[in-house]
Amino acid sequence: MRTEPDAGLFITLEGVDGSGKSTQARRLCAALEACVGEGRVVRTFEPGGWEGGAPLRRLLLDGTAQDPRTELLLFLADRSGHLRAVIEPALAASKLVLCERYSDSTLAYQCWGRGLEMDFVLGLLELCGFVRPDLTILLDIDPDEAARRLAERGRADSIEAGGMDFMRRVAEGYRELARRDPDRIITVDASGTEDEVAAFVEAAVCRGRSAAAGWGTGCKT
Ligand code: TYD
Question: How far is CA 212 from CA 14, 133, 167, in A?
């Protein structure tokens, strides 16, 4: 946790495809804006959430980058650009950054999902020196239920199309990451209704950020 008096706050939202991240990010963003003021919250996403990120996002999602190492390096290149262009300036301006997906996605998808060696990926992440999130909300859902939700929405990009075994490994990866870093990663049951999950997420964020000076006051959520 960064502790400078005027430091911003960096929250990431994680979970398998179909876990409801975008819906919950939208709701959490509105709740946080009501709490700290509209101009103080920046909502963003990976891959591709920065000027210059669109071609990288396309390459990653259309299946062009099939080789796991190539895919990994593209995700890291995207994160590097995203940090410099969006996340770091917002944190430097004492804003609250809410990001859908970040380095836990890389570990869950590229290590557990694609089978890349954990030490190799952790080593690269360390070398890149990416900012560590203050708080991560993991939307935990049975991958079969998540797949049903995606099917209802008619969505299957190249990574989702990796199949159920892939998604089950990713879900297990996320759970293991949460076990290893319980101070940062708060797991929320994402199997309920949108309203139920939103209430859990807001409560988790309030709890998690109360440790960060200046961000816990005056919030009803
Ligand atoms: P996206 O459509 O943004 O996913 P969702 O809406 O489900 O969050 O697609 C991003 C895909 O990229 C998703 O399948 C997860 C994958 N991904 C990785 O494999 N590694 C990463 O580091 C990141 C950021 C995403």
Answer: 21, 12, 34
Q: Residue whose CA is closest, atom 17 of ligand 1? A: 105
Between the CA of 73 and the centroid of ligand 1 the distance, in Å, is 14
What CATH number is given for 9-46+90-209 in this structure? 3.40.50.300
Query: What is the spatial distance between Cα 34 and Cα 70, in angstroms, rounded to a whole number?
Result: 41
As a whole number, the mean pLDDT across the chain is 91
Per residue in 42-78, pLDDT (tens digit) is: 999 999 999 999 999 999 998 888 899 999 999 999 9
Which residues does ligand 1 sit against, CB inside 6 Å? 17, 21-22, 46-47, 61, 75, 100-101, 105-106, 109-110, 157, 159-160
The pTM of this model reads: 0.93
DSSP 8-state symbol, 137: E
Query: How far is the centre of ligand 1, averaged over its atoms, from the C-alpha of 35 (Å)?
Result: 29
For the chain, give every domain's residue range. Answer: 9-46+90-209
